Structure formats: C-alpha cells, structure tokens
Amino acid sequence: MNIRLPLLALVVLLLTPVSQVAARKNILFIFADDHAYQAVSAYGSVLNETPNIDRIARSGVRFDRCYVTNSICGPSRACILTGKYSHKNGFYTNGDKFDGAQQTFPKLLQNAGYQTAIIGKWHLVTDPTGFDVWKVLPGQGRYYKPVFLTPAGRVVQEGYTTDVITDEALAWLRNERDADKPFMLMVQHKAPHREWQPGPEHVADFSDKTFPEPPTLFDDYSTRCPAAAFATMRIGRDMRPEEDLKVFDETSEYGRKQLALMPPEARAKWLAAYGPENAAYLADTPAGDDRTRWNYQRYIKDYLRCVQSVDDGVGRLLDYLDEAGLADDTLVVYSSDQGFYLGEHGWFDKRWMYEQSLRTPLLVRGPGVRTGAVENAIVSNLDFAETFLDVAGVEAPEGMQGRSLLPILAGETPADWRDTFYYHYYEGPPAWHDVAEHCGVTDGHYKLIHFYTLDAWELYDLQADPHEVNNVYGQAEYAEHQTRLLAEMTRLRKELGVTSDKRTN
Ligand code: SGN
Ligand code: CA
Fold first, then answer.
1. Considering only Cβ atoms within 10 Å of each terminal Cβ, which end of the chain, N or C, has fewer?
2. Integer Cα distance of 136 and 125 in angstroms
C-alpha cells in the first residue's frame, strides 16, 4: 500500500479552508398544512399570537412574497422536493402519485452524507425515497390517535397528532440521530388542515372572543369571471355542520367516531367546550347571513386553536436547538404548503391565484441569515430545494427551476433576481371545491389570470385593490399592464417549458 496517500489526504484536509469544513449546517424544515399568513402574528395577524413562530421571524427573515407554484397540498410538496413545477415533476393534482425515482433534494443531501428524516404529513402516495428515517401519516392523516406509515409497517399512536409529530421529531433529534453527521429533518404537520380539530390544550381558547369579519366575507363576486361564484368553498353555504363546524355530540355517529379517538381527558374537555354552543345551534339553527356569521366564528376559532398547537411545537423544537447548542449551526425554516382563506371572499380552502392562497408564510433563520428583516423579493417554494442544497454545499443539478435563497437571506439580492412569477393550478371541477383550472403571472403589483377552460381572463391592480374584488381586465387604462403581463406570461411559459395548459402525463 502506498503510505503517501493517507498523508496526502491529511495535507488536503489541513489546507481546506475552514469555511468549507464548517459548511455542514443542519436543516430543520417545519411545515404546516394550510397555515395562512393571516394567522401568524409576525405577519401582523389581527387574529392570534404565534410567539414561537415569531421567534424565527425576529431572529431571521420574513418573506412577504413567497408564492407557491400550484396552491394545493401534494403538488406543493412535490415542488419542494424536486425544485420543479408540476409539469416537470409530474405531480399536478392531489390525485397523482409521486414518482419517487426522480431526483430530489433529500436524495442529494443523503448522498452528501446528511442524515435525512421526515416525520408527519407526506401526502404523495408512494413511499418516501431519499430519507434515512420516515414516519408519515397516510393520506391526510387524522387529528387524534394518528396512524403512521414507516418502513417497518403501520403504527398507531395515542394523542393529538400535532403534539405527537413534535414529540417524535424531538425523540429523533435527542436519541436517534448520529451526532457526528449533519441532519436535514422535515417536521410536517397535518394542522391546521380541515377538519380543524383542536388539541386538548387549546380547545377552549378564544371561547369568549368575537373575531372581526374580513371585509370580503360577503363578496358577491361581481366583476369576476364565473369561476369565483361557481366554486364550492363558501363558509356560509358549503361547510358541513358535523365535520367542519363540530356541531356533534355522542348521539351522532360521526361524533362518536371522533370522540372515540381522543384520550378521555381530551374528550371531556372537548364536550365541555362545544356542548352548550352546539345545543343552542341545534335548537335554533341560524340561516342566511347569520349562518355565514356563525360558521365564520366557529371556523376561525377552531382553525386558530389548531394553529396554537403548531406554534407550541415550534417553540419546543427551537428550545431543543438552544439546549443542544445547535441553534447557530441550523437553518430553521417555517412554511406551509400554501396559504388559505380565512373568510376572505366568503371562503375557506385555497387553490386560487388570489393572494391568500398564492402567498405562503416563509420565515427563515440560521447561519448567514439577517435578523429581523422583512423581504419583498418574489421567492417561491420552488426555491427551497436549491436553498437546502446550497446550505449543504451541494451543487444543484440541471433541471431544477428555482434559485438558492441564501444571498437574499444574507441581504444581497442578486441583480437578476426574478421580478415576475408564473402560477398554474390544474385540479379543475369536478373536484373538491370546484375551482376552475387557471394559470397566471404577477409582478407583485399587477396580476393577470387566465381561466383557460372558461376562456376568461382577470386582471388585478393589487395596490389599488388589495382585496382583489375589482377585475380590470379589458379596461383601457390598464391596457399597457395587460399587454405587458400577457407577453411576460408567454415568455415565462417558454422559459419554464410549459407546453400545454393541461397536464401532459
Ligand atoms: C380534503 C379536504 C378538502 C381539501 C382537500 C385538499 N376535505 O379533501 O377541503 O381541499 O383535502 O387539501 S376533508 O373533508 O377531507 O377535510 S390539501 O391540503 O390536502 O391539498
Ligand atoms: Ca394544504
């Protein structure tokens, strides 16, 4: 054996700049499902306080224009893993199955010596690939007594899913990971997704409060193309009393089933919290606008109760990083698979290119990241993969369509950073909530949307009309912006390789 080889390796190691040796940062990705930026106090929520999520904002960067490529669960997750739009990663709607053979950032990190783990919601149907450890909810998962899928089979755990996911993540961090290797951990909550079942700690929160109604709760959809009025996501009309509003008790079959999943203490708290209000609702069920108002109050409280447990979990994870001395070496990202309607336009759910569902919360802190900054550059879930690769010092492969956020996080936005963004939603009716397929482009000030199956267009001036209730498509004074955005849409589609309005697989 040539003894000079190990010697040579030692010399190379000694000559390697410290920055490269120290470049092995950890990544903690905390991901909620359907968490609206309107329900994060760091984003100026008028509804709730999220003190722990706010800790990330205070010691990091808050992104005010993080746009998703396709505002729905599975497609968003596929985009994050691959750094590609739906038409490139093949996952267009929640009915698809993820092709786990394709390149993803977890696989690249794993190859580079990272330990990779995912705990919580997955929603991509096929088994996770690229993870050393995975423990995921089947499909949407449930709020109590969660079932998890693991390489060794199904396990059922007692408790409230949001808390269980945090417990599992902490157990892995504390006891199971190899402390000699960097980690990339994805902690992915079900909450605050429908059916908005609160945890025992928060089921009575906000009981005495009446929340302000959003200004467009009674939107009449005039000026819009027929898509908005056609959709079935209205708080007043489309919420189901038992599943969505929790108007149930032990006498209903649905109620019995849900209550049976809860530990006894949680069940008792639940019945005490909802009992009197439910009895009053059943005795005198509100109708018309009163029903919308009642549903809104019940909805927003349950939604925020679910958010509070997510926030608690964030706090426990951040505390662990502090205790373990890992905070300085760990990039912490908080985000959601998309934004969500909290009564704006009279809606719940997401899917649209309108602001509340196009924009997702994104808060990032960690090494090399500015503190307490608010960022307006247009970024996207498309950028996450390349950001994580960059953190690990791994080169992004050809074909990824985003860009690393590290320069922006450091306060140096590249001069050629994108100033427009392309969006494309494919899950058209008949499907959950019946939102027509559409694509569009925005520069953050104007937004052009094409509902191509309806042959209809909308144009918004977000500065003059932040609630997006005034479609100005076709109006003479907006002709210049309309033409400009249309040309930009054509350009972006070409650049991104969009060859069809419809799916191509
Ligand atoms: C479920 C929900 C829908 C929701 C989809 C997609 N219904 O089907 O309201 O739009 O998920 O959500 S429920 O009765 O099952 O709660 S996503 O976040 O997974 O994309
Ligand atoms: Ca979602």
1. N
2. 10
User: Could you tell me the residue ranges of all domains in the chain?
Assistant: 4-196+306-412, 230-299, 422-496
Q: How far is the CA of 140 from the centre of ligand 1 (A)?
A: 8
Residue 387, phi then psi, degrees to nearest 5: -65, -45
Percent of the chain having pLDDT more than 90?
94
* Cis peptide, bond prior to residue 75, ω within 30 of zero: no
Q: Using the atom order of ligand 1, give the atom closest to the CA of residue 432.
A: 10
Among 72, 79, 190, 193, residue to substitute to test ligand 1 (most atoms within 8 Å of Cβ): 193
Which class is domain 4-196+306-412? alpha beta
Model confidence pLDDT, tens digit, residues 400-418: 999 999 999 999 999 999 9
Residue nearest atom 8 of ligand 1, based on CA coordinates: 432
pTM, two decimal places? 0.95
CB neighbourhood size of 377 (10 A) = 17
Answer yes or no: is pLDDT of 1 > 60.
Answer: no
Strands (E), 293-443: 330-336, 362-365, 373-375, 379-380, 421-425, 438-442
CATH no., domain 422-496: 3.30.1120.10
- The pLDDT tens digits for 254-283 are 999 999 999 999 999 999 999 999 999 999
Distance from Cα 433 to the centre of ligand 1, integer Å? 9
